[in-house]
Amino acid sequence: MRYSFKASIVTQDDQKIIKIPFNVWEVCDSKGTLSIKAKIRETTFFCDLLPVGNGIYNIPITDDVADIIKEDVFDMYFEILGVSSHFLGNSPYSTENPIRKIDTVELVTQPFDGLCGQTCIAMLAGVTLDEACEIMHCREWQANMCKIVDTLDYLFIPHAHCIHYTQGETVTLPNCAILLEKMGRYSHYLIYFDGTYLDPTAGILPEFDMKNMVGYLEILVD
What we know:
This protein is α+β, with helices and mostly antiparallel strands. The chain has helices at 24-28, 63-68, 116-125, 129-136, 145-155; strands at residues 2-7, 10-12, 15-19, 35-40, 43-48, 50-53, 56-60, 74-80, 159-165, 176-183, 186-193, 196-199, 203-205, 213-219.
């Protein structure tokens, strides 16, 4: 999975860095020494992330890479190398036989906090919340984007291979997407489908303030 965001190079303690605008532990479900493949425009480079603490990491930038970048703000992409997916069991689904074709999305609400990721899977897959929890092997406060993506792959629900971190900017959303909204220390997940926002907590919303949106993952629909 790739991660995309608007970035800028800053200098801290005589080291040029790019700050990652999300908690890597939470989003990527990865800890420790993390090696990445990064791309800025046509420049690709490899490096280890610099840990700051509690899941926050920076990307170190060499002088050679910094000299290529002329803009103050630019598009940044990276992917973590060597990260294996969570094993959810052998899938009974396939590309030719996904769990379902997404042409509508029905609202599912969560009975209490901490199940929004599972609820989004339930809406996309057309299953109950209990079934979504069982498929994902996680209960309240255990879902993250890494587990959500692994579950989409298990169900053969097609999706883009890049999570776009918009950080409150106004963007044109694809026809279907999982949205990430920052709520306190946790991320809140909801579904956008065909002009409507389906929130596991608030229900069907006619509009959504994109200033509250951290980013989105496109779900590919016909």
